[in-house]
Design brief:
The protein is α+β, with helices and mostly antiparallel strands and about 120 residues long. The protein has a single domain, classed as Immunoglobulin-like (Sandwich). Strands 2-9-8-4-5 form a five-stranded mixed beta sheet, with no helix packed on it. Strands 1-3-7-6 form a four-stranded antiparallel beta sheet, with no helix packed on it. It starts with a helix and ends with a strand. About 15% of the residues are buried.
C-alpha cells in the first residue's frame, strides 16, 4: 500500500473513532411526561446521557427567550424539573447547557406546553 493511501486511511479511522466517542456522550432528550403543565408543576424528560456529567442546566426556550428550569432530580436517562412560577404560557422547546470544558446550548426535539 502506498504511504499516502495508508496515511489517508489512518486519518479516516482516527476521525471515525473521535466522532463515535463524541456521539456516545452527547445528551439527547426523547420525551417529556406530562407534555404540559402549569407553573410549579414537576415534569420528567427522558432520554440518553442526561446525567450531571453531560447536562449542566436545562431551559425552556421559544427561540428568543430562555427560562432556566429548576432540576429536582437528575439521572443518566431522566431529568425531573419544575416549571418556574415566572414561566409564561405557550409552547416551548427544551434546551440544555452541556457540562464540561466547552459548554454548548443545544435545543432538543422535545416540546412542553405551559398553561
Amino acid at each position: 500500500m502506498k504511504p499516502l493511501v495508508r496515511c489517508g486511511l489512518l486519518i479516516a479511522m482516527f476521525l471515525f473513532h473521535v466522532t463515535v466517542l463524541a456521539a456516545q456522550g452527547m445528551p439527547k432528550m426523547s420525551a417529556v411526561e406530562p407534555a404540559q403543565g402549569k407553573p410549579g408543576d414537576e415534569l420528567t424528560v427522558t432520554g440518553e446521557n442526561l446525567d450531571k456529567n453531560n447536562v449542566a442546566e436545562i431551559y425552556l426556550t421559544d427561540g428568543k427567550n430562555d427560562t432556566k428550569l429548576s432540576v429536582v432530580q437528575q439521572a443518566p436517562t431522566a431529568i425531573k424539573f419544575k416549571i418556574p412560577v415566572t414561566a409564561k404560557q405557550g409552547r416551548f422547546s427544551l434546551m440544555i447547557l452541556t457540562a464540561g470544558a466547552d459548554p454548548k446550548l443545544i435545543e432538543q426535539p422535545v416540546k412542553v406546553t405551559v398553561q
